[in-house]
Every structure is written in structure tokens, then in C-alpha cells.
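Would you be willing to look carefully at the protein I have copied below?

:::
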Amino acid sequence: MRTFTEYFSEDKKVSLTANLLDNSPEMPNLDVRPAVLVIPGGGYSFCSDREAEPIAMLFALEGYHTFVLRYSVGKRGTDYCFEQPFEDAKRALRYIRENAAEFGVDPEKIAAIGFSAGGHLCSALGTLSEEKPNALILSYPCIMESIGEILSCKVPSTNLAVTKDTPPTYIFAAADDGCVPIEHSLAFASACAENGVPFEMHIYQSGGHGFSLASPVVCNGKSLGVTESWAPLCAQWLRKLWL
């Protein structure tokens, strides 16, 4: 695996870390691979480590090149809170596509996965951006502008921007999420249904908010049980989507 970081700001706080898997003559079908852009959560005030590299490694095991975006944060209460991270995300997707040949990435098979506020950013890429990923994975996502009261940050309702051109979407969350109401996930799914966008959704009875992989590695030694199933189910969904 070749790993490197491209910095998008002079202070190096905004960055895209690439994890490019090695080619092998034993797997000639993987000389060109799909990719996943990982967008951690953190309420637009930080980027969660639990939703960054562990997620990248999950998809690397499935044969994907992965790219972890650490976007601009810490400007709550200003337009910078959403607009600059959104520009960072668009730049990251554009960077991957522009260098797809060098990286061995299939430019038509790039998924973006986002968690919580990162899920909002991910959904914005799939709705408000002219250049979109080829698939969205929304993880207990913030969707509606009402969440701005919690974030202290004005954000758009991305469910209202869903159209037939929104990429196929996989959504998962927990019904007992005490931070981001489950209505956010339901609203985006409903918008997908209304616009004919293929989607799959898993709502777990329990799991709370911010469970990442729901495994002992990222949950302080605890397992959240069935909630862990989102990962293999998501991998199956992507394989079916891109067969």
C-alpha cells in the first residue's frame, strides 16, 4: 500500500490522505479499482479519528483505494462553517477524478461516505454539487437545516435538493440516536423514493450516535452487536451496484 497526504491549506489542517493498494499479477482484475472518499463527522467543529482511518481500512479490505478528507472546521456561527468544508469536499472529489489514471482509480466508481456532520457534507456532494460521487453512503447523517441549532452552524436541508441525478444511496442509523433525530435519515430516504433514486436503508433499534464501525476497536472495547452489520451489508450493496 502506498500512502501519502495532499494538503489543501497552508497550515496543513485541511488534507486528503490517500491509501492506494498495490497491484498484483494474482489479481489482474484490480489494476483499476473503485475508490471511497471518507468524510468523518465532528459537528463541523473537528474531524473524528474514529470515523477516519478505521473506515478507510474497512474499505481497503474490500479492495478499494481510499481517501480520507480532513476538512476545514472550527468556524461555528459563520458561513465558513458549511461553505468552506463543502468547497474542501468538492476539491477532494475533483482531485481524485483528475488523478484517477495515476492512482489506478475508476473515475466512474467513486463512493463518498460521511458520518453525522460529515454525512451532511457527503449528502451535499450528492445533491448541491455539480460534480457528484457515483454513490453515497450516509452514516447517521445530519440532513435538515434544523440541525443547525445543535451545530451552531447554518446548513442547508439537503433532502430538499435531491433529484433524479442524485447518486444511489446507502443510509444507516440507530432509532435511539439522541443527537441527530432519525427523521433526518428518513427525510433523505423519502426524497430518494420520490425522485426515483435507488437506495437502501438500515435503521437499527439501538446504537445511539457516532458508533462508527460499532466494534470494540472504535467503541472503547465494547461491541454494539448487530449494529456492526452495516459494514458487510454496505459492501454487498456496493458490489451489486457496480457489477
In short: The chain has seven helices and eight strands. The mean pLDDT is 93.
